[in-house]
Amino acid sequence: VPTTCSVCSAVxxxxxxxxxxxxxxxxxxxxxxxxxLTALADPAQHYQLFEYLQKLKAxxxxxxxxxENIVKGNLSGIEEHFxxxxxxxxxxxxxxxxxxxxQQTVRLWMSSWIQKIASSESPPNYMSNKMAQLFALVFAAxxxxxxxxxxxxxxxxxxxxxxxxxFFLRTxxxxxxxxxxxxxxxxxxxxxxxxxxxxxxxxxCIVDVARVWTTILKDSGNDKARELxxxxxxxxxxxIDIELVVNDTMVPLIIGCLNDENASESAVRxxxxxxxxxxxxxxxxxxxxxxxxxxxxxxxxxxxxxxxxEEVMRSGMLLSAIGCALIxxxxxxxxxxxxxxxxxxxxxxxxxxxxxxxxxxxxDLDTSQTVVEFLRQYICMLKGEPLSAQxxxxxxxLVARIVHxxxxxxxxNLENDGENELDFLEYRKQLRSLLSTVGTLKPDxxxxxxxxxxxxxxxxxxxxxxxxxxAVLSLIYSLAEIIQSTFIMSSDDVSTRAKSLILQVLxxxxxxxxxxxxxxxxxxxxxxxxxxxxxxxxxLPSLLEAFLDARGLLHPSARLRTRVxxxxxxxxxxxxxSLGDYVGTVLTQxxxxxxxxxxxxxxxxxxxxxxxxxxxxTLIVFGSLKVELKEQYTKELAGSLLQKFxxxxxxxxxxxxxxxxxxxLCYMCNIIGYSSRITKxxxxxxxxxxxxxxxxxxxxxxxxxxxxxxxxxxxxxxLRQYLHRMVACFDEQLLPALPSIFNKFLSAASxxxxxxxxxxxxxxxxxxxxxxxxxxxLEVRTLFELLWSVHSSEHDLADEVVARNLCYLNRAYLQMxxxxxxxxxxxxxxxxxxxxxRRLSASILAFCTCSxxxxxxxxxxxxxxxxxxxxxxxxxxxxxxxxxxxxxxxxLQVPLALSHDPADAQxxxxxxxxxxxxxVLRMCLPERFDAVIHTILPSEVTEKISNYLxxxxxKELEKHMDELYAQLRVERITA
Length: 975
Description:
It is built from 48 helices and two strands. The protein is mostly helical. Among the domains are: 94 residues, no CATH class; 108 residues, no CATH class; 151 residues. The longest helix has 28 residues.
């Protein structure tokens, strides 16, 4: 089948004729303008062609016009024919099954096609495949009710022409795709229809069709027909009577095709499909035994050095199918205690192992992969049984071959991301999976196989090529997946030997190889097994040296440096307590790498530099230094960034070129980011205060608050991230800065995302400082006024970005209110008066009935928490009683809204939250609550609600309220 591009190219070459016809059929007045178009590559013409086809599909007689022109040959060429088929296909898919009046025309069109291919040159493959697809659509709609003799009348009586035979087989393949293919998702209605079709085919036509297959394989000299016939057998054997295919006539014909160069691949697929057909274990074993004997006699299961990759691949596919089938039989015989049959099965299975290993060892990756699943299943089968010496010998041989195959072939360069490299890495995943299966059975065999490889690697790496070094390192890296993942914490013999392998590698100088893939994998091993290194610290100094020199951070490959700087940061954080004695040396070596300059090329990208600063500060904070030195080094590190920031800010004031301004702003953003990453080193035990650094970072914070321009979203975002770190590191020391922080972001809050991000920061502040915030003279009224103005403004919700940002902003707004309430900060809002509280309550209640279920749930939680705080000694403070009453009414309405879908999981959570909210509201003033709901609901319902809210809790309350809501929804629909 030609590619889409080639089909489109052919189609568009005849575009002008097609458009003229379509326009004429639709009585369109723009024919002349369409004909005058000459730029065939113009996307506008593509769109116009699409629009005309859509009009033709919408015309009830459009498909008939297409059929008429096709049957009469009123076409400019095959390309126009192909285009008109799109209209016919639309009719067949959407209307034909319900249109009895269209049958005659459709049958005329089909007959015309059969006559055409029987008497003229064969059409292109893409046309034949499209027509086969359309014939399959007709078959699915008509068979068996409207056209029980479809196969006989359309095909079986007209197979004298080789072209018709080939088309018949294409149609059978299309019918399989339309009716049988299980990989295609289908509705229950279509699934039931397809089941009915398959049952009818078994009764009415499949026997006749199978006879045709026999005739084609026996007598046809058409290579394409034989190939397609075998493909059809492979598709249909799964659901037809096995004896239609497995008989004394068909089996020799299929096996004979294995020696046919053109049909051998299709023959393999057919035999594999026969073997994989579901059946009783005894029948399956008898079938597989017989086929194995015939294939052995045919030479199809033998693998010799003289076989090429395609021959070995065919043998591998057959061996894999036979092996997997025999494993399935073995399991069933074992389950049924059929010992004799299981022994026969095992003998046959063992005969497939040697040729399977030969296939696995083939240099061609695709060929090797054919038996991987069989070998994996075989190892799994051995898990539940005592292993014989023969079994262990096989596993050892398999592991040795896997280790050998792990090495990248000469034509694979793992520094590249080409298609071949990706295929090889995917192949490695399969090898790891196979090794992992062995690892759950006999991990000692894997360790046995790796020990000599590791010894050779550590002692002779200078004389080795890159590929074998990389292969061994990759296997060592994967040990945690290959053998039990807890081996690092275990002390058994296998675990001890496995840990020794890792330590041998990490203690070696193999990283001096310098190759990208070798050094990358080496440092990945360092970080993957950090717990092993924590318990065996001898290699740490040499590993630290490797990170810092040309093997790691100074490596000539920028790609490797980017990965290593991240791994270095992980290494430092994992071993920070153990690297304390090396702080001075490390800082000296890192100092040149920490120099950042907007006008100079650095070894590291801006993001890479973040990890360097984080690693450096971690070394300082946890190093074996006196507090005075920690203070000095930290102030120097952070102070140098502040000086660079101030210098850049001065430069920004002088620059007028927008490009230069943007460059400086980006540089300043990075400096703020580096300042943030420095603070990640501080912990509860090693805090800013204990290192005497709090004043330095507080000064930096105030400088950033003063200097960051409010019209730069990027700078504000960097500042916000720094402030998140300050909240984490400071306690009440942050209180004096809170008004400045709020004012800074409120003055720049025109951007919804910036405002949303600030609300997240505010939540962190409230959660960390809690009631201490009340001592900061913080005013939140301006913030709420700003948010309410956003809510009341019009927004272009058709813009996906605007709608998403607004949605997230609303959620953050509700979360912030919830944070204020639960962190004992109610005076922040209640001190603004009843008018403010009335607006706040109305705003929350509005979100209780919005379309965003996440916001609904948070809003209902906020209502419940708010009133539980406002209620005291029988009264509700700070809000009028009407607000409380409206809250009851709104909460009751939530599960009864038309937009509420009780089948949706999120809506169910909202409904449960509404029930909990009602319970809290009732607890405030029970008698008045009952009176309020009595005014809007029938008395029997109000009694139930009152009783449920008074007596039930948790899941029981949710269950009974769900039933009540369901009853009310039914009554509403009935009404």
